[in-house]
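Subject: Sanity check before I submit

Could someone independently write out the structure tokens for this chain? I want to compare against mine line by line before I put it in a report. The sequence has 156 residues.
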Amino acid sequence: MPRAGARALSAGYGRMGRVSEDVREGRGPVAELPEYAERVLAVAELIPPGRVMTYGDVAEWLGEGGPRQVGRVMALYGGLAPWWRVVRSDGALLPGHELRALGHYREEGTPLREATRSAGGHLPRLAMARARWDGTPGGDPGDASGSGPAGVTPHT
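---
Independent answer below. Compare away.
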């Protein structure tokens, strides 16, 4: 039985991972998300366009779990949120989704570093020093909300 206030999966921001395959193949949406997944995805939705948080940043902001747990949530349910805004700490683009992520980054104006000569001119990386968001409400000029989603507050 779904919890009160639990959100059902929807088309959201485009699919990736296990959930996307289920929905695309007509096996239907998942009835409810685990509570931790709801909180992780709510943080992902807070990240302003053109900014990113690392898996570890999200876990620290929530005050529970760690980078691997956040990564697992994003792998299973990331298509429900702007998944390209939750990234590896080294700024490397998500393996297997590089071109889709790069399209989002360019559209949103996310700071990028050009690929190094040793990378053979391949994909750029995120310029983490400029792209990283600290999770502070109102910490971005484009964020006028001043608060997060209901039930999700930063760990202090």
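---
OP: Matches mine. For the report I'm noting this point. The chain has six helices and four strands.
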